[in-house]
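[audit] Reproducing an earlier prediction to check determinism. Same input, same settings, fresh worker. If the tokens differ from the archived copy the diff job will pick it up downstream; this log only records the rerun itself.
[audit] input (68 residues):
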Amino acid sequence: MDLKELKNLNNGELTQREQFLKKELFDMRQKGRMGQVEKPARFSTLKTEVAQILTILNERKKSNGKKT
């Protein structure tokens, strides 16, 4: 997903996506220890997307905190 699509998701969907990506990253690490990773470049993609999700969630928390 690109950044624009991520920003259109609500907080619940973002959290759910984050958990899914972290599980996928964990599974890939396990396969990597056995030498069975098909697409090693996917590690970077997953980490980037998780970081983007966390950034969006933190920005939303800060903006909600300033309004109240």
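[audit] rerun output stored. Observation attached for the diff report: The chain has one domain: 3-63.
[audit] end
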